[in-house]
Every structure is written in C-alpha cells, then in structure tokens.
Amino acid sequence: MSMDPVELAAMIKAMGAELGFQHVGITGIDLSRHEAGFLRWLDAGMHGEMDYMARHGLKRLRPAELQPGTRSVISVRMDYMPEGLADAPGVLMDGRKGYVSRYALGRDYHKVLRSRLQRLAERIQAHIGPFGHRVFVDSAPVYETGLAEQAGLGWKGKHSLVLHRGAGSWFFLGELFVDLALPPDEPAAQGHCGRCTACIDICPTGAIVADGVVDARRCISYLTIEHAGAIPVELRPMLGNRIYGCDDCQLACPWNRFARPTGETDFAPRNGLEAADLLALWAWDERAFLSRTEGSPIRRIGFERWRRNLAVALGNAPADKATLRALETALEGSDGVVAEHVRWAIGRQRAMLRGRD
User: Fold this and answer.
1) Do 99 and 243 form a contact (C-beta atoms < 8 A)?
2) Dist CA 332 CA 327 (whole Å)
3) DSSP 144-169
4) CB-CB contact of 327 with 346 (8 Å)
5) Can you state the percent helix, strand and coil of the chain, rounding each to 5?
6) What are the E-state strand segments in 83-149?
7) Quick one: pLDDT at residue 324?
8) CB within 8 A of 171, min separation 6: which ones?
9) Residue 127 contacts by C-beta under 8 Å, 6 or more apart in sequence?
C-alpha cells in the first residue's frame, strides 16, 4: 500500500458516507476483552437453539481466524428507522393488527448493506490496487457489536444493542475485513445508559437478564424468527400481536428520541406490513406469502413459522367470532407445530368469548 494510512482511512470514511453509511469507523482485531462474557453467555445456554453460536465458539471474536490475513476492520452503520415510527406503539396496542419489527418492513438489509460494502471495497481497490478483504452483514460468526464499539460507532446498551448518542439504535451494522494496517479510531465511551432501566422494564418476557445480557430463549425476536419449534406455552400470551421480531426495548429507549428517519427508499414499508390486519395476513396461502415477502428478511423464516406466529397473535387478539371461525377453518388443513398453535389459539378465543358472554 503506497498511500499514507491516515489519508487512506480518511478517504475510506468519505467514500462510505457517499455510499449512504451514516458512520464509518475503523478498529483493530483484538476482541479479547469480550471473550469471557461471551463464553459465560454460551455456558448458560442463553443462545437457545442457535447451535452455530457454540459451534464457532471464540472464532466469532477472532477476526483473523475467520478471515486469515485480516489486520483491520471497517465497521459501518446505516440508519433504517422508517417514517411514521410514532405509530408503532399504536399498532402494538391494537390486538387486531400484526406487529412486524420495523427493521423488516422493507428490503432485506443483508442485501442492501452487502452491496454497498462491496462497492466500498471496489472503490478502495481502484485507489490502491488489489487487497485482501471480505464483506460481512450478519452472515457469519462476527462479533459485530464489539467491533462497532471499538470502532467508535457507539456503546453497548443494556438491551445489548449498540447505541449512538445522536442516532439511538435504529440502525444496521456491517463490516469489511481488510488486510490493511489502518489507524484505529478511538473506542466509544461507555456507560451512557446510566441508571436507566427502561429497556429492561418494558421487555414483555423479561429476556434482558442483566446489563447488556439477553437470554435468547425468552426473547421475542428469537422466538418468532430463529426458533423453529413450538413457542413455550407460558410465553405465548406475552408475545401479544408481535408476529416477527420485537422493538419494545428500542421504543422505550430515551436515546432513540434523537434517531432520524432513514432516507433509504429500500427500507420503506412494503405491502402494508407496518400495520396489517391479522385476519388478512392469516388469509395468505404459501404462494401469497412468498410473493409478498419477496426481497424481505421475513421470507427466510418460511411459511410454517409465519403461520405459527400468526396463530399465537390470533390467540392473543380480542375475543371475536370471526377470528375463532378463521382459526377453526384453518385447523383441518394444518399439522405439526402449526396445528398445535392453532388449537391453543382456538382455546384462548373460546375461553374469552365464554367470559364475554
């Protein structure tokens, strides 16, 4: 590399801004201070059925083992908060609607960030010639929160998400591993959550078990997205109408009052999923699901898991004969995990209707 490293780092940040990243930071590859906490989390089984977490082990915290030759990591932030976020609490309070985590309303963020990071790598190469690199967007064992902290993008909040004083937490993270020795940025100052416990207090299932520690086995995002089997019966009422992910901890966080709506049209809501009627979603067959979630991160959970989540939400919905009929009609064509959740929902609706009468 003939270019001065300091000049190159400044150029990389400028190019990143041109490509739509709101923050570009650089860090080295030593994540050793995070290893003990990560191992305790694994040993406690808090990763649930995410076996890949344990399978990769400390590789997640050792970038050079994941990508040999890595000397620096370029960590980026892209804001995704859609317009109309103020309506989110209203959707959560309306049991007839389905709540989809705000990050999943538009185009799959993996595709958006991966494309931009690849373009960033190509621009760097145009200036310095070929260099070793690899793009990551939540797609491999990468300890992205630790890297983001060390690159100055923010601090780890009590909900375990990275927080930025001027942007809250409504953003995606991505990384570009490079074999370039770049000057690292100062790590973000920690402790800006102070004594606030808003995220811990609001969590519907009590999944935030300590400062910065989330037990995935109780987390609604894990249960509705990563978890493939039956949702524990005792947790189902707590899911409310959340059918894909959960934003409660972010909605409650005082720092998010500084977040600004994204200018990325790719993240704009599609198919009315920001406040969709549960019965309308329940009427989708698999073909409709695949069509209307094309290009969306929702598609990756598959139709069966989608129906399972909807059944739970319908079981938690206000007592309604039309809801009960829709569930009873669907039961005959359902089997396995979906059928079990439909039966549970039918029982809930019948009990509520009896109580109302």
Assistant:
1) yes
2) 9
3) HHHHHHHTTS-EE-TTSSEEBTTTBT
4) yes
5) 50, 15, 35
6) 97-100, 133-136
7) 98
8) 22, 77, 78, 79, 80, 81, 162, 164
9) 3, 8, 11
Listed in sequence order, the residues at least 6 apart from 239 whose beta carbon sits closer than 8 Å to its beta carbon are 204, 205, 220, 223, 224, 231, 309, 312, 313, 316
Q: Two tokens at 316?
A: 């938690």
Q: Token match 């270019």: residue? A: 3
CA neighbor of 309 nearest in space, from 350, 276, 332, 287: 276
Amino acid at 298: I
Residue type, 303: F
Whether residue 137 contacts residue 21, with contact meaning beta carbons closer than 8 Å, is answered with: no
Instruction: Answer whether 0.90 is exceeded by the pTM.
Output: yes
Q: What is the SS3 assignment for 183? A: coil
Q: What is the mean pLDDT of residues 51-74?
A: 94
pLDDT score recorded for residue 286:
97
Q: What is the mean pLDDT of residues 135-157?
A: 96
* Secondary structure element (H or E) that encloses residue 114, with its range: helix 109-128
pLDDT at position 26 over 70: yes
The H or E element spanning position 26 is strand 23-27
The set of catalytic residues is: 138
d(CA 239, CA 241): 6
271-321 confidence digits (pLDDT tens)? 999 999 999 999 999 999 999 999 999 999 999 999 999 999 999 999 999
Using one digit for the tens of pLDDT, what is the confidence trace for 78-101?
999 987 766 899 999 999 999 999
Scan for tokens 């790719």, then name that residue: 266
Distances (CA, A) of 18 to 24, 55, 80, 179: 11, 37, 17, 23
Contact 167, 125 (CB under 8 A): no
Report yes or no: 243 and 310 within 8 Å, Cβ to Cβ. Answer: yes
Question: Given pLDDT bands bounded at 50, 70 and 90, which one contains residue 249?
Answer: very high
